[in-house]
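Archive record:
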Amino acid sequence: MNIRRSSVSLLLAAALAALAPGEAAGQIRLKDVATLQGVGTTPMVGYGLVVGLNKTGDRRQTIFSMQTLANMLQRFGVAVPPDGIKVENVAAVIVTADLPTYSRMGARLDATASSVGDARSLQGGVLLPTALRGPDGQVRALAQGPLSIGGFGAGRAGNNVQVNHLTVGRVPNGTVVSVGSSQTFGPSESIVFALNDPDFTSAGRIAGAVNTEFGPDTARTTDSANVTIRVPAEYRNAVPDLVARLEALTVEVDTVARVVINERTGTVVVGAAVRLGPAAVAHGNLSVRITTRLSVSQPAPFSERGDTVVVPNRDIDVSEGDAQLLELPETTTLQDVVRALNTLGVTPRDIIAIMQALKAAGALRAELVIL
């Protein structure tokens, strides 16, 4: 993969967007970094059929989809043996959705349908009514409707074009809640907010922001992941109003210095808190190219000896780019890190190797995460 130097600057400079002038780093709403403890979603799952496919559905070796279709037709008074069904516009799918805690009967949700057979594409398909069950086995919702797969495919065999993943689709707003949640907000003396990314510094700052808003001793840090908030007397019977006010509260969170690397795609993301210690880096490119030319060797005309053979002629070319030794001074900002890396004129895949070497040398003062 050849990536130009300009793309390196664009990729690494994207992390600077969060530090735009006029915006304080880390100032975000409480609801974006923490959730109310005890409030979560309930996963639901169901098995159904997608119909209306253009000969891209399950083939005959997928027995369960034909058995399901036969059972459904039998309920409509059409008796057909499963081995007598020959259709390619039906696909068996697993349907999943998340039921929010306070959803009520009649609320509409999104669902995801994933092929479980050998269907080639769910493009243009419609999900038949599918019962979705919770972890307790109780039917909580009913999903149906046309699928949106966010892509397309055309052609067959080796002559085809495909954009995005075609065997997973969304059913937008196609899930109707049939059994709502029984959980309600009753009077309470305290509530707990759980941080999405546990951190003692962030938890302390959240508690401080709540105390500034509602008075001292209102919030305290239980541990790195939880902040306990004492419900003021005026909100004892109106806890939802308190939660709404807390969620909109602006807090300042701390972030861990982290560099995330995806070696499969050559993606490098440098966090805002990353710092570099003084180091010297030498970078060069070594490429080896081997080419083979096939020549035909034939015996002399009218010769009775010798055979016609193919003789491979191999050429080996080795080239090494100009290496340079660059001194990286100790940096204090992310912009300095980006400028120092771009000075080397390297691609993201080269930066991956440089980052790993800097971490091994102790000059990269950040956590290195490799996906």
Summary: The CA atoms of residues 277 and 363 lie 4 Å apart.
